[in-house]
Batch of 2 targets.
Target 1
Amino acid sequence: MPTVDAERKPDSTNEMKGQKTHSQKWVWGKRILTAGFFVLVATLLFIAIKNIDWQEVKQVLMKYELKTLLLAGAVAATSLMIFSSYDLLARQFAKHKLPTQQVLPLAFVSCVFTLNLAWIGGMASRFRLYSRLGLDTATITKIVSANVITNWFGYIILAGIIFSAGLLDLPDNWEIGTTALQIIGVVLLLIASAYFLACRFSKRREFHIFKHSVNLPSFKFALMQAGLASVNWSLMGLILYILLLGKISYPTVLGILLISSIAGVITHIPAGIGVIETVFITMLQHQLSKGTVLAALIGYRAVYFLIPLALAAVIYVVFELTAKKSQLVTKEA
């Protein structure tokens, strides 16, 4: 006569096999969707740039006044400083005591690596640099998680407002797309509201999602997340607005940037290379020439991606040399 445990064993095994099969199907589904989206973006990029007047692009770049470039650079620097301050906010959540003068340079390097190398680059640099400052894996994981949530919470709020209010000036043949964006915007605002309400009123502060423990922050913390990230995304849009010389309304520029950012995340392309260009050229072709839009995007990549990357690389090398020097001193001692 079999025991109860023996009788349940086959069911448990079958259940595990079913979960594994479902997981494999989900992984392959994601890969197929990502590949399809990647092919779509590549096709749209080819269509968008095949008739580019590169002479026009050069002329537009040469006509930028120094004050315009300096203003765009100043806004970019402010944005990156706010982006880096996510780590100061995360410090409260993770409850570590590293001083600001150590956190901010480290955060700047990681943020710039995130922009240029996607979130994997940002996470890898944070784990490496924070661990060298004595933080354990669990604490670093909390910092990374808080940063990701902060960044996308601000995105959700801004995108929800701009999309639901219909503030984007889209091509005439995008009428259906406008309605879809408004629906998406309403959904995003509902998600943001739910997060705020949960942080304010929920008595339960810990949840388990996909076998991961998630701690709900305070309402004050959520407000700070919303404020910092919303300002950061707004400044990113302002850089492009400045480089487009105010020829396109600011809400439209910011809205298109938000759309292109999601497209970049889906395709996993570092720095969204080609994705941002495709979306902007496609969605602004009824208002500006392709050359003008592309010139602004080249300027945007220079002041917000490439120049900061060069600085971040220098700081990272300094971190590495300092760490090696400390290790040598410790060994000698």
Target 2
Amino acid sequence: MVKKTKAEDAAVSPRAVAGCCSMESVVSVDDRGQMVLPKEIREKAGIKPGDKIAIVSWEKDGKICCISLLKADDFKGMVRDMLGPMMKDMASE
């Protein structure tokens, strides 16, 4: 078995190292605050005209440092899956 060097490990894709996240694209914001999601990203994410997108942000030191976009239906499902069991536990007490 051949042992990998640290340099070879560093050549692994960022997505494999981070687990789930990668930078897909860079977009510009126009004067009206609008931006366009590239077609390849929309297709990969299954985003269709009329879909609702939830904007989720994280703050650090009083400033927003990260912004994520999620399909609203997916976000709703994640929240329901997280809070549903807790609500059942609270209701039974």
